[in-house]
Design goal:
The complex is a heterodimer of chains A (404) and B (495).
Chain A lengths: L3 E2 L4 H10 L4 E4 L16 E4 L6 E5 L4 E5 L4 H10 L2 E2 L8 H4 L7 H7 L6 H4 L6 E8 L4 E5 L11 H5 L7 E9 L1 E2 L3 E8 L3 H12 L5 E7 L1 H4 L5 H4 L5 E8 L1 H14 L6 E4 L1 H12 L2 H4 L5 E6 L5 H11 L2 E6 L4 E6 L7 H6 L7 E6 L2 H6 L8 H14 L15
Parallel strand pairs in A: 1-3, 2-3
Antiparallel strand pairs in A: 4-5, 5-9, 6-10, 7-8, 7-9, 11-13, 11-14, 12-13, 15-17, 15-18, 16-17
Chain B lengths: L7 H5 L1 H12 L4 E2 L2 H5 L15 E3 L4 H13 L3 E5 L15 E5 L6 E5 L4 E4 L5 H8 L4 E2 L12 H7 L6 H4 L2 H4 E7 L5 E5 L10 H5 L8 E8 L1 E2 L3 E9 L2 H13 L6 E6 H11 L9 E9 L1 H17 L4 E4 L3 H12 L1 H8 L2 E4 L2 E2 L5 H15 L3 E6 L4 E8 L6 H18 L18 H4 L2 H14 L23 E4 L12
Helix pairs in contact in B: 2-4, 11-14, 15-16
The chains are: A alpha+beta (404), B alpha+beta (495).
Chain lengths: 404, 495
């Protein structure tokens, strides 16, 4: 049984890291614990879920600070009261990983996971304004601030986002929040093959209609949707999200349909149905029902999305869908000992793209590189950066790479 | 300004180093004549000058690699330089260092509409990126006021913003990837045409690192379709409080304007006298709001903002009806710095950011300091994001005015930090605010940043003396000093 530390105040986190000897597993509510390389068995645990609560929320300033362990659900509820939101839209992977909920704000930042609007609104890393945390030496430090515009010193916030707890245990984070759009509309185009569908996504994103998200679901994925128009289409669905002030969203939706005239039958979802649809895309709901499928997430140049998905599908049995205008490929495949890593990574474009093994059993994740292996010079630089924060490799050792 | 002590053994090898560099970058790629070197003796912060030992002007990544490898092997310091328009002295040369100028690397490498991005060499100007895609209706969003001259590589180094950054983001939100040469000559590619770099987000921390982590030799930026239309609104208020309140109400109504700028009474008067933009002279505070997007949206929001402004007590309200009127409304704001420069032989420009609602409090503090130091001040404010530019008016030839102005400036930055703000919103730390860093950061905060520096550049040869305070402080605090309205680039708008 691992020793568990659950500090109730930020200062106690440093005390834990000073007192506890050796490596330690840093976690929030554990909702994404199955994501990444497994940390060694039996490590002591630093559970940050006791550090909860919103410490500052100024809607007019578009800023919120909270303890790192604050549940995402609490953050969303507080923002909703003021008609605001986290525009990076952190996904809820409880369906994929069997967790209790969407986890914590600190966890969303630490994993830098973002929803479908990543292409317009940015990732978690684009919305973090500052943080406080404790490095592997047990030293409390901070970076950034609570203002929108700040170039004072290195922006360590960006580095912390997506570091999976390997650089610091977060105690507090400050994020930029934004007004919730008044209306959401989704234009659906039915029956396109992947290649022309990505063409439609590309054309839409290249228009002046401010498309906020663009996805493509082949028929076998579309039919799992809880939105009738999508599930019963009996065809593939290309989906374009438009959001904003009422008259603007309506106008742009009409205009976009004009642009896409003749590409296929179209339909339109209004706010409520749009929210359900895009939540399914964000949370990879289509793959959640199959508990054994191994799931990959590939980030590629958007114009390569259809080709990459097709190349994997030609060699491995599975299902896929595209988000981010084609730049994000989700692939679920029947379990293989190496999770198909060699095939998946061999189809990436030579100079841009990466594949992350999002879900597989722990044994596979220990054998197969979960995160895209880095070229030697970058791997060496990454190792030195890690040492700058955590020279003894105490924080989540091996979670990202064997030596990080 | 205390800078790292020059190494006499390096200076003694100057001729040999010049000869070796010529072999690496060609005879026309090295500058060593005293007159020619003087052109590189400062950046946009011209109060501090130091001719470099040598200047190297590489033409490609390979030459940058060769220069850095050579200098690394021979223990020669490097100062990277883009267009030299920076306002915090980040490109200030050192007497024993080679300034590596990226100006000759100014090609657009690729325009990729399918992936909505542009790949450019670092010496391409900010506006040059937009120029490359304008014909297809696209643009690059961050628009620092110096955009006709500043380079995209320099924008990466400074994480430059612009008037539109509340809505469209800073450089860090618009750069997809860079190619970076480390001090030891290693080349790493961070990001690319895809989103979310693998591994740690080193791209995010390289942006805004002021040339301390590596030399950027290629930048991939995302491009956006230009908005259909834009309209400007100009509102006068009887107090800075009510103007600030109006900004808060606009944002609370769920509206994020493309631009939102505030000016106080001295700044309004100076700008109007200079630019004749039609600004009202009987108001204490002027708020400019720009709304952009489809015409339907802009019409809708103009009406809503108008209602909000009236409710917030606007005493005057003008809405642009065409592009010429919109230009005229902005002309006054864009001319604010030179306009204020006419009022006074010298001014210092500060660059703090504060939580917006603290504006009345900080402005009151600035007014009190103005009385205490007996020096005038005018304030312009990027109202949407809280970035405040107080301009302190003084005459360096009169008694102790320079000294008073500098102490006044440092007190303003301390007031910004006390209000929950930061030392610099967009001009960078450089050498200018270096010694004020401990006002904002604890020794452990700074040490952690410095450890990152060491991971990228263990030798410490890359741009030393910048950003991190030295052990000995000097009296020169965070400001950009302008003498007789002569900036290094007098024609560039500063706002």
């Amino acid at each position: 049984m691992s020793e568990i530390f659950k500090p109730a105040r930020p200062a106690a986190v440093a005390e834990v890291l000073v007192q506890a000897k050796g490596a330690i597993e840093v976690r929030g509510r554990g909702s994404k614990r199955a994501l990444g390389r497994p940390v060694p068995e039996g490590l002591a645990v630093l559970d940050l879920s006791g550090l909860a609560g919103i410490t500052l929320y100024e809607p007019e300033e578009l800023v919120m600070s909270a303890r790192a362990g604050t549940p995402i659900a609490d953050v969303r509820a507080a923002l909703a009261e003021k008609n605001q939101e986290l525009a990076f839209d952190p996904p809820d992977y409880s369906g994929l990983f069997g967790g209790r909920d969407a986890g914590t704000l600190g966890g969303a930042i630490a994993c830098n996971l973002s929803g479908s609007r990543r292409i317009k609104s940015g990732a978690a890393r684009d919305h973090i304004l500052g943080f406080a945390g404790v490095n592997g030496r047990g030293e409390e430090f901070k970076s950034g601030g609570r203002v929108m515009k700040n170039v004072t010193g290195f922006d360590l916030s960006k580095l912390i986002a997506g570091s999976y707890g390997t650089l610091a245990a977060l105690t507090d984070v400050t994020v930029k929040v934004l007004p919730r759009p008044e209306k959401i509309r989704t234009v659906l185009v039915f029956g396109l093959a992947a290649d022309p569908a990505v063409g439609v996504l590309r054309e839409s994103l290249g228009s002046s209609h401010e498309v906020a998200a663009a996805a493509y679901l082949p028929q076998d994925v579309a039919q799992t949707s809880a939105v009738d128009l999508v599930a019963r289409a009996g065809a593939s669905v290309a989906a374009l999200r438009i959001e904003g002030h009422g008259p603007s969203a309506e106008y742009r939706c009409r205009a976009l349909k004009g642009v896409l005239d003749g590409r296929g039958a179209t339909e339109e979802l209004h706010t409520q149905k749009s929210e359900i649809f895009w939540r399914e895309v964000r949370d990879v709901a289509a793959f959640a029902a199959d508990p054994v499928a191994q799931i990959w997430r590939l980030s590629v140049p958007p114009a390569d999305g259809a080709r990459v998905a097709g190349a994997i599908a030609a060699r491995l049995k599975g299902r896929y869908f595209l988000d981010w205008g084609g730049g994000l490929v989700w692939f679920a495949l029947a379990p293989l000992p190496d999770a198909g890593a060699e095939v998946v990574r061999s189809v990436l474009p030579p100079d841009g793209g990466q594949a992350t093994l999002i879900r597989a059993e722990a044994g596979v994740r220990a054998r197969v590189a979960v995160f895209q292996p880095l070229p030697p010079a970058l791997a060496e630089l990454t190792r030195r950066v890690k040492e700058g924060f955590d020279p003894d490799r105490r924080l989540n050792p091996g979670r990202m790479f064997a030596d990080v | 300004m205390r800078m790292p002590v020059p190494d006499p053994s390096v200076i003694a090898r100057r001729a040999e180093i010049a000869r070796n560099l010529r072999a690496l970058v060609g005879p026309d790629g090295v500058i060593d004549g005293a007159d020619a070197l003087r052109a590189y003796d400062c950046d946009g912060m011209s109060a501090y000058r130091q001719p470099p030992m040598l200047v190297a002007l590489p033409r490609g990544t390979g030459e940058v690699v060769r220069v850095l490898k050579y200098c690394h092997a021979h223990n020669v310091r490097i100062v990277p330089r883009g267009a030299g328009t920076g306002l915090s002295g980040g490109a200030l040369p050192l007497a024993d260092a080679v300034t590596v100028g990226l100006a000759r690397m100014n090609r657009i490498i690729e325009v990729d509409y399918a992936n909505r991005c542009v790949v450019a060499e670092p010496g391409v100007t900010n506006l040059g990126v937009t120029d490359a895609v304008r014909s297809a209706g696209f643009y690059y969003a961050p628009d620092p006021s110096s955009q006709i001259a500043c380079s995209i590589g320099g924008n990466v180094a400074e994480n430059s913003g612009g008037v539109h950054c509340l809505k469209y983001g800073l450089t860090v939100h618009n750069v997809l990837g860079v190619e970076l040469v480390l001090m030891d000559g290693e080349v790493v590619r961070l990001g690319g045409k895809h989103l979310d770099t693998p591994g740690l987000d080193l791209l995010g921390v390289v942006i805004g690192s002021e040339g301390l982590l590596g030399i950027v030799t290629q930048v991939t930026v995302r491009i956006l379709k230009a908005p259909e239309t834009a309209r400007a609104m100009m509102m006068g208020f009887a107090s800075n409080e009510s103007a600030g309140d109006c900004v808060g109400r606009i944002i609370s109504a769920g509206i994020i304007p493309g631009g939102m700028e505030m000016m106080d009474r001295p700044a309004i008067r100076a700008s109007e006298e200079y630019a004749h933009a039609g600004y009202p002279l009987d108001v204490e505070s002027l708020l400019l709001v720009e709304l952009d997007g489809p015409a339907v949206e802009v019409e809708h929001l103009v009406k809503r903002v108008e209602e909000i402004a009236r409710a917030a007590g606007a005493t005057t309200l003008t809405i642009s009806r065409d592009a010429a009127e919109r230009e005229r409304i902005w002309a006054g704001r864009k001319a604010a710095f030179p306009a204020i420069g006419r009022l006074s032989p010298d001014y210092l420009c500060m660059d703090g950011t504060i939580p917006r609602r603290k504006l009345p409090e900080v402005l009151a503090k600035i007014a009190e300091l103005s009385r205490r130091y007996n020096l005038g001040v005018a304030n312009v404010f990027h109202a949407g994001d809280g970035n405040l530019h107080p301009l302190i008016l003084f005459d360096a030839n009169v008694g102790d005015e320079l000294d008073r102005a500098e102490r006044f400036g440092a007190d303003i930055l301390r007031a910004c930090i006390a209000a929950g703000g930061v030392l610099t919103g967009e001009h960078g730390v450089g050498i200018e605010k270096r010694d004020l860093m401990p006002e904002m950061f604890s020794p452990l905060d700074l040490e952690q940043q410095h450890r990152l520096k060491c991971a990228f550049d263990p030798s410490g040869l890359l741009n030393p003396g910048k950003v991190f305070p030295t052990l000995h402080r000097c009296a020169d605090h965070g400001m950009m000093r302008v003498h007789k309205n002569e900036t290094r680039f007098p024609d560039l708008p500063r706002f």
